[in-house]
Every structure is written in C-alpha cells, then in structure tokens.
Amino acid sequence: ITDDKNIDTLKYPFYRNWYNVNIGNYDFYINNDQKLYLYKSNNKIYFIIGHAYDPFTNEYKESNILKYISKADKNGLYYNTINELTGVFVAGYIKNENEIYFYGDAACMMSTFYGTHDNKLYISSHTQLIGDLCNLEFDEFVKELLQYKYYDLFGRCLPGDLSPYNEFKRIIPNFEYSYKNGRFSWKRFYMTDKVNIASSNKDYENIINECYKIMCDSLKLIPKKWKHPAISLTGGCDSKTTLSCVENFNEYDYFSYISVKKERPDAEAAHKIAKMLGINHNIYEIPSDLKNYPKFDLVEKILRANCGNIGKVNVNDIKKRMYFADNEDFDVEVKSWVSEVARAYYHKRFAKKKMPQNVTPRILTSIYKVFINNRTLAKKVDKIFEEYLSKYYTNQDFENIEWYDLIFWEYRVAAWNGLVITGEHQYSFDITIPYNNRILLRYLLSTPLQYRIADKPHKDIQKKGNRKIANTNISVQNVKHTPKRAMAEKVYFNISSKVVI
What we know:
Elements: E1 18-23, E2 26-31, E3 36-41, E4 44-53, H1 62-74, H2 78-82, E5 86-95, E6 99-104, E7 113-117, E8 120-124, H3 127-134, H4 140-146, E9 168-170, E10 175-180, E11 183-188, H5 201-225, E12 229-232, H6 237-244, E13 253-258, H7 264-277, E14 282-285, H8 296-306, H9 315-326, E15 332-334, H10 345-349, H11 361-368, H12 375-392, H13 395-400, H14 403-423, E16 430-432, H15 438-445, H16 449-453, H17 456-465, H18 467-471, H19 483-496
Parallel strand pairs: 12-13, 12-15, 13-14, 15-16
Antiparallel strand pairs: 1-2, 3-4, 4-5, 5-6, 6-10, 7-8, 7-9, 10-11
Helix pairs in contact: 5-17, 6-17, 8-9, 11-12
C-alpha cells in the first residue's frame, strides 16, 4: 500500500505478477495469488487483504464480513466486531481519501511493516520489497546483530518492532495504526481491561465450553472457504486439540511429513491417532537428496528474501516448501500454531514455576537470544527493548494481564511465527490457523496458570470434543524442549536477566 505514484508493475520487482487498485490517494498492489476485498460505506472504504472468517456469526465470505464491520462501525461496535475474526490478514479502512487505518489478524500471522521514505508511505507484508522499491540499506545495528555468532538460535526475528530498515517498523497485534497528516500513530484496542482468572470449577468449565465452540465453529467454516482443506497432524497437544474439534472428519484431508529423522516419531504418532479414528492419513516422505531439487539455490534466495533477509532458512524447511509446491494435494493447510500463546511457554522453556513479577528490557534480551560472549551487543538489544516497552506498554497493561503472556503473544509469536508463515509457508499453499482469534486466546488466558503449565485447558477441550483422542496415550514431546535444555536455559536466564552492565 503506497502513495508513491512512480511504481511500475511491469518491471522489477513486480514483473506483471501483481495487480493495482486505486483507493483514494493510495494504490494497493496485490500479488496475483493474494486477495483484496473492499466495501464502501460511512464515507469509508474498508479492506481486507488475505482471508478472514467469523466463528461468532458463522460468516466466511470476506465481502459480507466487511459489510458487517461497516455496520458495527456505524453503531459504535467496530472493535467488538474485528475482535471476532479468525484468519491471516491485514485489514482496515481509508477515510477522507488520505487517512488510512490498519491492523493485523489476532497474532499478526500476516507480517506487516509500515513507514515512510522520501515522504512516501509504504505498508507491506515483505520488507525486502520495500527495500528494493526504495533502494534502502540495512540498518547498521541490524547488520551487527545478523553477524553475531549465536543469532540463528531461537528463530529468525529482530528485537522489538524493528525491521531491517531504520525507517520501517513491524505492526504489533492488538494495536490499530493510523496515518494522517504525514504522521503515524497507534493505539491498543484489545486486552485493554483486566483478565479475570477462573476462580471456580463452573467458571473454568464455561471457558472450556466457549473455547471448544469457537474452535469447532471455525473448523466448520474452513471447508466452506476452501475446496480441499487439509489438517497437518502431529502427536502434540495443539494438533490433537484441533483434531478433537472437527465434527465431520470427511470435510478434511489429514497429513504429516518426514524430512529428517526427528520428525518421524511425530508423523507415526499422528498416523496411530488417525488409524484409531478411522480417518485416512497421508505421510509425505520428503526426499533428502538435493539432487531432487534442481532449483534449490534459487528457492533458498526467494525464501530468504521473503523473510526479509534476516537469517538463513533451514535446509529441510526449503525442501518441504519445494516439495509441497510441486506435490500440492490440497489448497490450504490448517495449522495449530498460535495455540502456544496460552500454554505458558516461558514457564516451560525456562523450567520455572514463577517468572519475575516485573518485566525489564534485560529480561526481554535474555529471552530473545543468548549473549554469552558479547555483552556489548546485549546492551544494544536492551536499548531496543526499552524503547519497545515504552512505545507499546503501560503499567496498566501488565496489571490487566501478566507480562510474560502478553509479550509472548504480541512479540514472540508475531515476530517469528508470523514471519515464517508469510515468508516461507505460503510459498507452497495458503495457511489458516483456527487458534488465531483474539476472543479465543483471551478465554484460554483466563484459565489458571498452573492449569496452563500442565496443558489442562487443551486436554479438557479434547475431552469435550472427542474422548477417543483425549484418552489416547499417544503423545510426542517437542525435541527442542527437553528437561536438560530447559535447565540450561534456566541457568542462563537467571544469570543474564540480573546482570547489570
């Protein structure tokens, strides 16, 4: 999205693979494989880029959703309505032809970056695209960070809301951004009040019922939007919970994949669960020999560029993307990502029953990367997180919800998972995530912490949906989260988060 009138879609980097729609003072450039939906009302033009569906109204057509949003806006219920949406998208509206307001999906699984260069506005899902259009150079701090020996640990993502370019920032979940009179501003519109933790069995049971209904209704809508949806299965908690919320197994295909030895236990566990349920389950064996991928080097460059050129793409991930692009048996993959927002991730990662009461920039730096032999760089990262906390969070925010839950949701998941979905996975086919719903995530975060550490809410949703799945002893532990690794990370976190330079 831009007000730059000098873009030529016939040349690099568009090459006729994009279409252009003019809206007010702005031009929307959309890739041919992406979708733009528009609706004009209330002297505003509402838009959705990507896909969305509403498990509360059971609406799955974006054109109708935009009508619903415009009506709600007129009645003062705009935010209530957009909080209901599930999907992978960026959306908003244009007012008075030159004011633009925009926000991401629940966890910003469609990465989106915004900023200005030479007094021109640019909003894009891909930072390298902005860099190419504006001939930008990477920020010096980002260059230094990317050269750090242990940067590749814990995922390719930048601290705070940074992009590779100093003038551009990443949008944050639960915030609406606006651009008018040549300036950006932002405001929080969700998680603005206190999250009340279930204090009785009845309250907890009601939450589980609501979570199950939202998941179940979302999974009913997906087959209406796509002709051939498929659910990727593992033996893990998130995947089993998703499967337990499917009422009609015949509406989906089911699959797993094996690209390396460590993925085989997950695929085999999923196959056992599928067999128990009597549903067909396909295991894709991803060829390991690079001879099977004659365009590997080219695709590697494409995926790195799609992810902003901020780190290497795992070789096996490249193979998977190439394999599925050439062996596409379905048109959308239903993933169980975002679910970890409610599964007390940091408590498990650092083997801690209690996290520090108050968050500091150094705590976020210690969570972000391991800075054992470069404390000078750690101090620079501290500064980035200090600015991030000051920019987006107030003391009231962390009184409404614990910092470790909000930071994991709005920083970690958005900065890393969103980038991978946008930059890698959509190379093969579309992705949808039924957990990616603000109201659902809030419900899950309203359950007691000790329950979430034990994955009790997910297990109880499984019982609500399908006791065969809930009662199976088939499960697979994440190989990245072993007790030994958790203890090592705990020691590092305890020391690093308290060191003062």
